[in-house]
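User: Modeling request: complex.
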Amino acid sequence: MIDKIEDRNNVRVVNLSGSLDISLQASLKQDLLDKFPRTKPLIIFDLKEVSFIDSACLGVLVALTRQAREKSGEVAFIHLTDEVQSIIQITRLDKILHIFDDEEKATAFLTS
Amino acid sequence: MKIIPQTLSIQITSYEEIIPSFQKMIEEVHQFQSKKFITGQFYQDLLTAYSEGVANAIRHANQLDLAHQVHCDFIINSDALELRVFDNGNGFDIHSIAPPDFKSYAESGRGVFMMRQLMDEVDYQKLSSGENVLILKREFIGTDAASRDLDLLYEISSAIIETTDLESVYNIILDRAVKAFQVERASILMYDEKLKRLKVVASRGLNPNVKESTQIRPGEGISGYVFQHAKPCLIQDMRENQSGWSEKKNYKSRSFISAPMICSPMRLGQQSVGVINMTDRADGKSFSKRDLKLLTTISNQAAAYLHICNLVAQSKEAEGIKRELNIAEQIQRSYLPSKNPKFPGFKIDAWLQTAHQVGGDFYDFLVKDKSLYIAMADVSGHNIGAALTVANFRSQLRAFLQTQSDPAEILNQLNKSMFGDLILHDQFISMVLLKLNQGSSELVFANAGHQSPILIRDENLIEISDLNKTGTVIGSLENQTYENQTYKMDEGDTLFLYTDGVTDLTNPQGERFLKNNLEKFLLKNAFLNPDQFMKLFQSHLSDYQDGTEANDDMTALFIRVE
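Assistant: Request completed. Predicted assembly structure:
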């Protein structure tokens, strides 16, 4: 689920993996909240290894994005697989979430 | 101006008529009382109580009457709606009905218990004519204060239902109540069977020593009095006594409670299981009757839920939990249309299968002013919380459909009204709302982040929803404005709607069904009649699944233009 978490260039990069479905919703949220910076969180979710995400887990990512913004932080998503890209597009959450091709562009956006 | 009570009557002969008869009556009630729209939770509560009452009358009370006909009156007063359900059975003493044993949901008593939770007044009497009458009364919600109360209750119920951990339930109740009543001190006391004393199980603003050491006998002090007599109590001043409590009744000066206060028993039927106290308002004002009433409702709600929590804690066995879910599934099923709509020019069939018993998928039909509205929605998550959201969503959708005829505008209103609840639970709703007009082949629809409906025309599949005109899922952007889209359909066209549970279905090899398999199936079988198509579709998916447990609800809707 959470592969690794590293801080680079003042940004926390979280690598997620696997099939993220309803059965993981609660633990995903708790684990991510535990790792959530308390002030001005700047986070990149690298979804390269995520083969599938359902609306329940997507709800967790949207909630965390909302929380980050409330604390004057921001969240970016990179390396979306076709599957993940498709659900984000159908739900039109692409209008709300910031999506980038790679970490460099995401970091530039978050730290600008 | 005083409004003269109006009475509307209806006869019901079968279970199938219960929900339609209720809808019909509410529509008529609205014609008399245009200002008092029965919507939202109020509508839902009335419907549940009405269904229980009428079903009970059909099931038990009319056994001798071959026609099984139940008569029901809706009486509209200026401040309340009263439902009267008449039956010819032997009758029973409603006051002797004990709270149900939650381990066995089939047992009788549950209906009465539920009605009591939902209505302001529940009574059952024998009339001189020999008939029995069940009286259900609920006050209209007119003021802002009342709707705030309702919001608080809904918030608490949806928060506690997410957990089965007692500690969290206590905390949810206290935190919400402290905020709503603006008090500095609050406590929940539960009765300990072994000690035969009330003990503080959760508190706010209380010295920890007091919390630990306080043990109260039934009858002792205010909490003890309220517990023993199972009656709520409002105290403006310690020396004053209301609701029969007096200083003589063993009140001890070392009590941890000061005035003004409200105290309410947590009741299961006539029996108390504990009490909730609210003390010391931050603004120094005294409590009102309304406050006491709200606390009583919260207490009853809490008691019922704590009882279930206790049972779950006692026996974590899967069997018990499964039953609980089955109840939720039944509730969810009851929200779905019992049959397909008859609408000139179109033939329609729908299918829904829930995963894990309780689901977040939903569809509905409504015919109004020669238009047929078709809604399909997917609420994220499929636990009891999602089922509750579906319940709330459904009643709001129905309410907006009554006053609005523009699909995009209805989505705007739904988004606004559901937003707070949804973000509280990290949920959102994808939804399409279609409007078909009699005598016209033009389809109008609005889409909130849902899979595009697929149109099958000859050998072509067309995804008719334009991504640019599709809004985000409901509950993601508070100020989202949705847009209508139109599509001109031809005779012989088929329109297919689905939720992602269909395309996400996995086979034993872990491969998903995906859109390409769906498209293949549609191209091959879309010429079939709606019901034939649906049967084949179900068995096709079931073959694909081949015994693997489905992770998500699946819903499909098939519309043929004739």
